[in-house]
Amino acid sequence: MNSVRQPGRLAFGILLAAFLFHAVLALKAGLVADEAYYWTWSLHPALSYFDHPPMIAWVLWLSTHLFGVNRWGIRFPSLLVSVLIGYFLYRMGKEIFRDRWAGLWAVLLITASLLFSAGAFLITPDSIVVLFFLLTLRSFYLAIDRDSDRSMILAGLWFGLGLLSKYTMVLLGPLLVLFLLLDRRARAWFRRPSLWLAGALAFLLFTPVILWNSRHGWASFRFQWHHGMQAHQMSPLSGLGDYLGGQLGVMTPIVYLLLLGAGVAAGIRLFRNPSRPLLFLWLTSYPILLFFAYSSLKAKVEANWPVEGYLGAFLLTGALLSEWEKRPWIRRTALAGVGLGIFGSLLVGLQIFWPVLPINPTVDPTGRMAGFGTEDREIRALEAALPPQSRPVAWLVDGYSNASLLKFHEYGRVPVYEIHPKRPFRTTVLTEEEARTLVGKPVLLIQNGPGGGFSQELEGRYGTPRFIGTLHISRRGASDPTPILEQDVYLIPSFRDGLAQEPPPYLKVF
Fold it and tell me: Cα separation of 19 and 395, whole Å?
């Protein structure tokens, strides 16, 4: 790899090709439910939200005002962030290790990761927090390495913006403090005002989230703690196996094993010959991966949760690969892993449009993206068959996921609301003011089917539903006709405002 004369150009070419590939997916692949749900947040600007801090809502508000309420408007921030992450990884290879090939290897490794490939076009809080995490790492290290108070203040800025993006950003704080304690020359920073000013700036930026939680019974903090540390959904060993298997899949097997191997090799080297760059990157990456391994013993860990922990690992692994000139088999293995990962990303992209892999449609994660809009069109067909006096003025939906997708499709036409929510403070939920405007008018009631119990669970609080049909949505282009979604559709001829009879969502149990 060191025989490459211009690694910067090669890195630029890789990032450009990845951007074009992900731009096609962003424009053509259907939204997933969480993307639509985060978009509904942007319709209700607030200091924070139940599930996450507010940054994704603020970013989507700006992006959709610039590009419109469409897939490009919702996904453009992820595309931009993915390019910036690749650019700064390459730069950090040069700045931290004085090695352009370390940066190039880091770009290759992140490009080969299915997790980061998905995050390059799907908009989630992870899409945004990874950029602020990386910028915090860069500014903090440059502050220490170049004795720069300005860079330290910038690190506080990026850290605060990261806290506004996702709660997992908080894991970085103690690791940075630990680095200052372990690096003998860096301990003097505890006596410098800029470090404390950086911390104060980060805390100040996070105050909107604290204020929102203080006004809502600390609901978001409690939910995330329970969700990540107390939701016993499987045995400890099963949870750990699920976590490790999930990471092996989303990072692609060879890349994941390379990252782990590099972590072990760097850890051994640090005991023998302490190195500031290796210590910094090891401390700000592998403990995060270990934390989520521990968390998996207590609750299910979603595959994307440890995403920030891989950023330092990419750079550290890139630096080791760059210097292992006398171990060509390791480099050949790394290149094979990169090739396999890129092939996997291309295959997943192809699967969205043409189901080349014979996966059961009900478990194929690309199925709903392929069937994007089909459900909405079939509901509208049922609606069009109704007499004019029974045409609904709104749709009431079971669950925030389906409500969010239908709200996106019907934006500017028929209002869509979630009713009888299982969790509080959802931006998709029907409000008292909106309910009053629907009284006496026809509405559609849409529930998961077939034969779901949601309509019975409502106990007539919103009127008497009349069944008009069940939708069986198959995966577009699949030879297997197994439905990926089934929905029962009811007509409520005269809406009744039953919000006052709704039991409040139980905040203590999630």
Answer: 37
